[in-house]
Amino acid sequence: MKMLITVILCLLLSSLGFAQDNNKEIKKDTTKLEEVLVLSRRKLSNHRQEKTLSSIDDYLEKSNKVTMIKRGNYAWEPTINNMASERLVVTIDGMQIFGACTDKMDPITSYVDVSNLEKVTIGSGQEGTENGHAIGGGIDLKLPSSKFNGSGFKSGLDLGYETNGNYKATGLDLEYTGNKFFISADGIYRKSDNYDAGGNEEILYSQFEKYNISLQSGYKFSETQSIDANVIYDKATDVGYPALPMDVSLAEALIASLTHYYKPEGKALKSLETKLYFNTITHIMDDTKRPVVAIRMDMPGWSDTYGFYSKANVVKNKHHFTFNFNGFYNKSLAEMTMFSNNPDEPDMFMYTWPDIRTLYSGIFIKDDFHFSVHETLASSIHLGYHNNKIAKEVGVQSLEIFHDTVDEQNNRFLVSLASTYQLKKENYNLSLGLGYGERAPSVSEGYGFYLFNSSDNYDYIGNPNLKDEKALEANFSFKQKFNDFEIGLESSYFHIMDYIIGEIAPDVSSMTIGANGVRIYTALDYASIFNTYVNSSYKISERFAINGTVGYNYGKGNDGENLPLIKPFSYFAEFNYNTPKFNAALQLDGNGNQSNYSSQYGENETADYAILNLNLGNVFYNKIWKTVVKYGVENILDTKYSTYADWNNFPRQGRNFYVNLSYIFK
Amino acid sequence: MKLKYLLPIAFIALFFSCSTDNDDDAIVNETEGLELIQTIINNNQTIELYNEKGMFETGYNLVSLRIKDNTTDSYIEDATLSWMPMMQMPTMEHSSPKSTITKALGKDTVYEGFIIYQMTNTDASGWSLTLNYTIDGTDYSVTETISVFQYENQNTATFMSSDGSNYILALIEPKDPSIAVNEMKVGLFKMENMMTFPVVEDYTIALDPRMPGMGNHSSPNNTDLTYNNADNFYYGDLSLTMTGYWKLNLKLMNTNDDVLKGEDVTEENESSSLYLELEF
Lengths: 666, 280
Description:
- The complex is a heterodimer of chains A (about 675) and B (about 280).
- Chain A has 4 helices and 33 strands.
- Chain A has about 675 residues and is mainly β.
- Chain A has a 22-stranded antiparallel barrel.
- The radius of gyration of chain A is 25 Å and the shape is globular.
- The model of chain A is unreliable at about 5-35 and about 40-50 (pLDDT under 50).
- Chain B has 2 domains: about 35-150, Sandwich (Immunoglobulin-like); about 155-280, Immunoglobulin-like (Sandwich), CATH 2.60.40.
- Chain B has one helix at about 1-20; strands at about 35-40, 45-50, 55, 60-70, 75, 80-90, 95, 100-105, 110-115, 125-135, 140-145, 150, 155-160, 165-175, 180-190, 205-210, 215-220, 225-230, 235-240, 245-255, 260, 275-280.
- The longest helix of chain B is centred in the N-terminal third of the chain and has 17 residues, at about 1-20.
- The interface of A and B includes residues 340 and 349 of A.
């Protein structure tokens, strides 16, 4: 491992050494490895058709690198490289934000909506760690950038309806853009009843209702300086989680930020962006809709985060440097009250997250060194100081029941290094990358108290003495073009040391009635995760195209056991027809049999499946408005299926007809 | 401009100068934090009985006493005291486990001891307390009716063991349980006869705390209680994973490890016949 760090450091240094080289030809576009999903609600996507009113979750699911873990029809949890929340860093425009649910019912992606965002940047492995320390990668949900182009007043209306679940969605946005000032407001409302799985089987507790409003405004002081304020308020109520024993009565977030932009001209410093932000989340679980429960309980959680970042882009000769200095303070508190079935006995109470404070500050430096016309060497380093504190004395004491030593505070120093070589030629692309990353345990992994996992049916106890999880990573991608045919291969390998996972504590009795027992977070010596995808596309004619993807994933611990939530063999094929005003796509999406499942962690062999989707889109122009219609059928054959990422194998949606209408007024 | 820097300093100075030290040598109230249970008047003396709650309850009661000389209105600092609680039953009478009375540590006028009331009548009646004390070589005695209220939980257990003897077990700590590993302290006494309850030494009390309301949930890392000959009580670790009602299932073993009372808690056997209760 030390050798690898040395190699990466050498690469970093050697690339800096080349800085003296003078070359007038500066490549303007910085080649990004990250995958970018453009949330173009207004355009007819010519590749993969989406509904204009798709949720963020739907969008993310379309990405090759992301798989969504589903516990219901709402608030899916993204995974990258077969790694979920704790191993990812998910940010909103660089802002740290942490869910307030101990049972992962509120991934960050559930607190924003498509109307809030411009694009989503997905970075695999250490490529995604600009905003934080992660092993699996990063997702940054980008807010719209400020506009001072004087385009005036604009508005849009979106309407959507889907037959399965009687799902309704409405979106409205208003925007005024002047030369020095802009303001935009949008709102979106979604409501769904229970959906039906294949064969008209109603999935109880799969309903949800939510709305989201956002307001953004900016002012331009001068040619070089502007300021921008953004507020998002998101509220979901009556959200069912068919795969879990509880639902959610409230998931509420307020996300606010103030950003200052400085863009000097003709200097090495291209931009300096400084943001101050705060966000607050309230999450309340609810079991009142469930007729039979072992015991009634309340489980509220709160998460507040305050932070800042300051990010500079400097272009010097063939180097493009990114500096990002950032810090945040988070307060996570969750509690549980159980109402005794015996009226003579008092209610039972515990802190499931005993008011954990996290203080972080770090610096990220990246250099994209374009050392020849076709070649780039991108190297980055991220150093961070991470402090956890248990603010409630009872939190220390309660963890002492399970651990001999529990320190009130825990300091960590985290390091991330990455280096990628990229070659871009007319007909082929090649990239090779190495990385090393560390992460601190999540609040649940470090300090959780009796957190029930309904998939393996164990209560989980945090471990404040966990070591940092560390990963060595190698990735490779290659793409070759032969006239109208293109084929590509993408592959990553992770060797993860001190891989954090729950281990059964024998003789410890579960708190949750009916659970199998208790697992305490501990670490495997190491685990290996590997994935590879082959993509190909063929353009048959100007209007017809076909593309397909085949994927293979592997994940095992040092004990030879399979890791949980590793995607089985998967495939996707799409047949496209496109004209400027009409498009159609027929999709085949499927997974092989999940033979390498983790029975230890409650998985079973999820059967293979394949579904067919048909998506259509039209666009109509008029003098005053443009109309976009998207419609189609999902799961045409009404297949009843579930995937490896469906919690407790609850089945997914059966046949669904949908239509989305968008009007854009100018 | 300078004011900007001076103001915070001025505020800080003001803040620290305002904080006064509360070390005044006021007259120390030796019964601070205690509530008066009852006063017993015996001619020239008044005996004041205190504890934290201001009332006697079944179970362990730590009692503080003061004797006031009614003529001088001052508290006596060099008395020797003993006591005898007595329960009057329809057909017989009996006493209860108790300690000797000694001067409270670091106090001049307060004496201290404990009494474990193993039972009471529903209307708190039945008990009386006899106090014998000596002041300056003169012996005094007084007997007064007292009220002993039933505590809401089973904090004491009276039982006959398999060796045919009767024992009394009383929970002393935790007084303020928390979600933590609590120190558990109990007193164990043998009922030799109606009036004598000596401390039982060197037995072992196995501990298995459970929450019957939570599917008989138990907690990890509890330890069996063992005898401490420094203060004659039994000590062990009691882990409580949440607030609520806990049943502390116990099993009493003698020095040969023979089980005198109590059973293991299993799937079939929800609770031991020997237990104490706790709520918080």
